[in-house]
Amino acid sequence: MAALRAGTCALPWAGRFMASNRFSWKLASCKTALPATTIRPRRFATAASEPTPGKPYYITTPIFYVNAAPHVGHLYTMVIADVLKRWRVLIGETDAQLLTGTDEHGMKIQQAALAEGMEAQALCDRNYKKFEDLAKAAGIDYDYFIRTTEPAHKDAVQYFWEMLQHRGFIYTAKHEGWYSVSDETFYPAAQVHKSLDPTTGHTRTVSMETGKEVEWSSETNYHFRLSAFQEPLLDLYKTGFITPTAYAHNIVKSVSEGLQDLSISRPAERLTWGIPVPGDDTQTIYVWVDALVNYLTKAGYPFAPGQGARLGWPADVHVVGKDIVRFHCVYWPALLMALDLPLPRNVLVHGHWTINREKMSKSTGNVVNPFFALDRFGVDTMRFFLILQGELAGDANYDNAYIIRDYDKTLRNGLGNLASRAIGCAKGEVPTYIANGAEGKLPSPTSADTDYETQLRELPSKVASHMNSLNPRAALQEIRAIIELGNKYFHNTSPWENPTARQRSIYNIAETIRMTGILLHPFMPTKSKEILDMFQVNPQRRSFASAEYGSDPTYGESPKRRHLFPRLPFKDNE
Ligand code: MSP
């Protein structure tokens, strides 16, 4: 393996920065890297703290492999991240940033291109679009769509590598192990077993965790001194880095049991489709190192001194599925610690969508086409359903019948019905009731009114607390609960029979619609607008601050009865 040429650097200005850095710019080649014992990873500032004032709130999705088309599981990941971004904007952080994109290198893509008889680049150019189209179709308010084949990303990855090498965290060694192309990872011998493939009758060696086939590989490649980071990683987990905590337990257990150094390159004769190791074209950088750096690329890495925060780094939340926790919660923070880069504040992990209790996956073939689902049920209905029923700590089973059930119950018969009944029952008096309500001139409350008003008053802070602790599902459940409660309240107070009770009851229902209309924005941006437009809520009064009970005397001039949530086109489970 060729030693890295001293003084070479992927980025011209970065070379100048390095020259003035506290490290002398004398590169150790991989073979002469410092022995592990001399490396002392620094302690680091605690993660998972409050967002840094003045820094854009920065959220990421995982970047998607382009070897196959997107499915509903990918849509779910995107929607969670988008809901978090829109929430930050709703609470006033107008410069919140959302990054999504595609993971285009590695053996998996190389093999997919080979199978299709295409150049890898051509395959990427064709397939990345499907993910970008999906983000657009689902109303994902992303700020940048990254592709790992972009030149700027290549520069960032090579610079990142050079810095690791410069600091002595990379060495070469012979590596033997079981590699899964599908999972793009090595597994230790204790984590694979033999398994009979029922379709062929052949016995294969597969990963115990994912069931994916592995192949034996024996090669010399570059290693990262991951083992040096056991203690700092265990410290990191104490700060609430991983959400929900259920996932942290497994990671803490496995890191406590010991960390092996990580193989971070593959011989170029086997893996050509990737970023070459700087100064050594015989080796290609491991696709996960390449992929993880995407989060830095778009924050402007390599940062000029002191500029990382201005551009967004560190990320506030990386949203990831449970199958990629180890990459984000072990490898990624260790790589960043090696370079003394600030750590992401939080990794938000979600469970998987299953079909008949089996993970929805392109390799299994049991996937739901997200474009068809969005088309059939509507963007907001899908967003609502995925967040309401998708689980963070567990898996959720996907079924069209559930989408229809939730839509009918909470939206069509719940919120939509409530809005239309209240308007009908008020007989044109909605504006009077709203004005009286905001000025405290309504008839005295009954105990039913008081109980319901207490719930309404508490709603925004409950939603905020769940959103701020990265639990959009719990936040949406609060909104669903108030819609159900509002229907019961409306029914119990019988405003159509009692002209005195009517005023307060209808005011409270108008507030329910207005407040839920605002709070639903991150989840159902289009419907939220329709709801607020229907009640003529001033566009300047649609932020989280305006979601407070009784805070807006200006809306509801002449609300029109209309079907906010029309019948879905299909009633059966086709
Ligand atoms: N390319 C890597 C991520 C690199 S991030 C630096 C990758 N890509 S992926 O296309 O396989 O998966 C992207 C995301 O989709 C992951 O978070 C994964 O967990 C998620 N999902 C894939 N199948 C899923 C379900 N069935 N359900 C929910 N999410 C699913 O991993």
Automatic annotation (TrEMBL):
Its GO CC terms are: mitochondrion
Q: Which residues form the Methionyl/Leucyl tRNA synthetase domain?
A: 57-422
EC numbers listed for it are 6.1.1.10
MF terms (GO), sorted A to Z: ATP binding; methionine-tRNA ligase activity
Q: Which Pfam families match?
A: Anticodon_3 (PF19303), tRNA-synt_1g (PF09334)
Stored SUPFAM superfamilies: Anticodon-binding domain of a subclass of class I aminoacyl-tRNA synthetases, Nucleotidylyl transferase
Entry annotated with the keyword Transmembrane helix: no
Q: Which UniProt keywords apply?
A: Aminoacyl-tRNA synthetase, ATP-binding, Ligase, Nucleotide-binding, Protein biosynthesis
Ranges for the Methionyl-tRNA synthetase anticodon-binding domain? 448-539
| Reactions accelerated catalytically | tRNA(Met) + L-methionine + ATP = L-methionyl-tRNA(Met) + AMP + diphosphate
Q: Which one GO biological process term can you cite for this protein?
A: methionyl-tRNA aminoacylation
Give the residue ranges for region: Disordered.
546-574
Give the UniProt family note: Belongs to the class-I aminoacyl-tRNA synthetase family.
- NCBIfam families from the UniProt entry: metG
Question: Record's PANTHER family?
Answer: METHIONINE--TRNA LIGASE, MITOCHONDRIAL, METHIONYL-TRNA SYNTHETASE
Q: What is this protein's name?
A: Probable methionine--tRNA ligase, mitochondrial
Organism source for this protein? Answer: Aspergillus saccharolyticus JOP 1030-1
